[in-house]
Design a protein that fits this description.
The chain has 8 helices and 7 strands. By secondary structure, it is α/β, with parallel strands linked by helices. It is globular, with a radius of gyration of 16 Å. Bound molecules: guanosine-5'-diphosphate and magnesium ion (MG). The site of magnesium ion has 4 residues, from loops.
């Protein structure tokens, strides 16, 4: 394993995307022996997201079809690394932890690592309403699929690209995040870990529709339980 693709979905994220990219610890990853592909999947942003991302050193692909899940599926198809890592473009996820997670994936011979934002939520990073919603969705995920994770909605993952061939990832929307975990941890029975992370306040405009996506994600869990 000697290449890692860091895939970032971005829709109108000119405020955060530059700093997300330039704070990725490239030197550390290179010292560990990895080549790094920085890949931004832009949802046809109407602001300077693409320019800022390119200037910060990323390769940019445009996926005009809407949706978080759609963006990641397109990004994964363009990823050339044997390992994929993901973060949002809004400065919420700790990119400085990527090397540690990659090391763990490699040294413990894991397939999939997901992260738990509830371990350390910085002030202002997640509203009470979102905490409750995420808690309910995580409980539903665990009960319906017999797994034991703390955060079914986290968007920071590190995994071996070759696992994707065995996963049925159908959601184009925000439910992609829970679907990936259900597929990896339940249906595919992969070797996985959930690691605690720090979750930081967002810059820029949120794309999640709190109630709409919350209910959609809950319904998606039930549908997925009935028909994979
Ligand atoms: N390319 C693309 N990116 C998206 C789309 N919707 C959301 N994103 C990105 O996906 C990430 C997650 O969205 P965000 O609003 O932060 O949701 P939250 O983290 O669940 O609150 C952000 O980096 C967004 O810019 C989309 O339709 N297309
Ligand atoms: Mg976000």
């Amino acid at each position: 394993m000697n290449k890692i693709s860091i895939v970032i979905a971005a829709l109108n994220e000119e405020e955060g995307i530059g700093e997300v990219i330039w704070t990725i610890p490239l030197d550390e990853l290179k010292k560990m022996g990895f080549a790094v592909q920085l890949l931004v999947v832009d949802g046809d942003s109407q602001d300077r997201t693409r320019d800022v991302a390119k200037k910060a050193g990323a390769e940019v692909i445009v996926e005009p079809r809407r949706g978080y899940g759609r963006a990641y599926k397109t990004g994964f198809a363009h990823a050339t690394g044997e390992i994929i890592a993901t973060v949002d473009a809004d400065l919420t996820y700790p990119v400085e932890n990527i090397p540690e997670l990659v090391r763990m994936l490699r040294d413990e011979d894991l397939d999939f690592i997901t992260t738990n934002r509830f371990a350390c939520i910085e002030k202002g990073a997640m509203s009470l309403r979102n905490r409750i919603g995420n808690g309910i969705l995580t409980l539903a995920t665990n009960c319906l699929f017999g797994i034991d994770i703390h955060d079914s909605q986290s968007g920071m993952w590190v995994f071996r690209k070759d696992i994707l061939a065995g996963l049925m990832l159908r959601s184009d929307k925000m439910a992609f995040s829970e679907e990936l975990k259900i597929e990896a941890c339940h249906f595919a029975s992969l070797r996985y870990r959930e690691m605690p992370i720090t979750y930081r306040p967002r810059v820029g405009q949120i794309k999640l529709r709190v109630l709409g996506d919350g209910f959609h994600n809950l319904l998606y869990l039930v549908k997925k339980r009935l028909v994979r």
